[in-house]
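Posting this for the archive.
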Amino acid sequence: MTVHNYSKHVAIVGVTGYSGRELDGLLRFHPEIQVSGRFASKADSKTGAEAFSLETLRTKSPDVVVLATEHDLSHELVPQLLEEGYRVLDMSGAFRLPEAAQYSEWYGFEHRATGLLKESVYGLPEFYAERIQKARLVANPGCYATAAILPLRPLYMAGAIDLAAPVVVDGKSGVSGAGRHPKPETHFCEVNENLKAYGVLKHRHTPEMISQLPGASVDQFVFTPHLIPITRGILCTIVLRAAGGASVQGILSEAYAGTPFVEVLAPPSMPSMPDIQSVVRTNVCRMGVASNGANTVIVSAIDNLVKGAAGQALQNLNLMLGCEQGAGISR
């Protein structure tokens, strides 16, 4: 019989959505963290969610409030929650970008909490663990962004990418990445036996990626997302030119040596490129590299609901609450 020592408590707002429900499921097996409050826009007996209000939230006494909500609602709630003295982990895009003007261009709304954009810590544990531990506000990364930033950031930081050539990121995602709210383009008849590009040259994860890649620019960075007829998973195929004979394989292998949730496949491992099935329902980002001279292809795969959302959120919660980073997360 497992004995739990629930010394930490979190509340999840938006527990009826895909990401919120996934996080709630992961936390049911956590040895130290208990979900003390489950909230949605209205009460839901299926998930045990209560209708959200600040008054009800106060009765739950959470150490961290997780917002698994749309960006416009997070934009409204985060300042209120911080004013109340709560620490916040936001799973929307409302506090991921560094500049308020970017929200008008990419999200279509005016950001009014500009001071909090400067305070917000980008929740990528592989790079910002120390800052996440102390943060009042953590912005959980987007799913596509996670799949692209993890293979690319070490290369940009090492000056290993030829900045005169474009970096092309081709992303393919399961339909759960579009969220639970019904939309005509995600109906079964639209998605089944189909594959289509969307958000071409204007997807909101583009500035998020660029903001985390030192030296990247909109002019030399092309991200194209595609919807594929599966429930969950993301596969990114990244094409770039290496600079100065840099070993992309070597840089990535060194960057992630010893990290719990990023795997760099090394030849002659078989297969040398990851696929979606190998990472579904895990918190692992798996990547492979192929090079022909300076021309380089990196393939990365994640589960969009785990490493791309709830699993990464749990990594961040563990850091914020002083738990071991991988607690409650199966590989």
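The domain at 143-304 is CATH 3.30.360.10 (Dihydrodipicolinate Reductase; domain 2). The two ends are 22 Å apart (CA to CA).
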